[in-house]
Design goal:
The chain starts with 29 loop residues before the first helix and ends with a helix. By secondary structure, it is mainly α. It is 66% helix and 0% strand. The chain has one domain. It is flat, with a radius of gyration of 24 Å.
Length: 143
């Protein structure tokens, strides 16, 4: 990183380097948690690497479907978490103000959180079905 020269001769401002902070540890979402619990660490690692094998077989295609279904469940859960935090912030503001807004306190935040909850549950059900199929396919291919 270069520092821009100062307009006044001989007064170059140096900015101290900012220390890099490591990224926050990501917590596993419900989809990843289901995969780790159902497959164990070895099965989870095999799923992550096995879905990229070529030539693709029905098992690798199923592994990719399992992975994408789990990722979608995690994405939906993350959106639910954000919507819930926004709803909580609105409720906190309503309590602090002492009088609710004319259009209601939550507006559409409550409905949005309910929809995300239902979609997350639906996605986790789908993950369970796809995971059962994947397990049967992997045990049949190893037998």
């Amino acid at each position: 990183m270069t520092n821009p020269p100062s307009r006044v001769r001989g007064t170059l401002k140096l900015t101290p380097p900012t220390p890099r902070t490591p990224p926050a540890a990501r917590t596993a979402g419900p989809g990843e948690s289901v995969l780790r619990k159902a497959l164990g660490d070895d099965g989870y690692a095999l799923l992550r690497t096995g879905r990229h094998q070529f030539p693709q077989t029905p098992v690798t295609l199923l592994a990719d479907l399992v992975w994408s279904t789990a990722r979608e469940a995690d994405r939906l859960h993350q959106q639910f978490d954000q919507a819930s935090r926004q709803a909580r912030a609105r409720l906190d503001r309503a309590l602090d103000d002492g009088h609710p807004h004319v259009q209601g306190v939550l507006a559409t935040f409550g409905q949005h959180a309910d929809l995300l909850t239902a979609r997350t549950a639906q996605q986790l059900t789908q993950l369970g079905a796809v995971l059962d199929t994947y397990r049967r396919a992997t045990t049949a291919s190893h037998a």
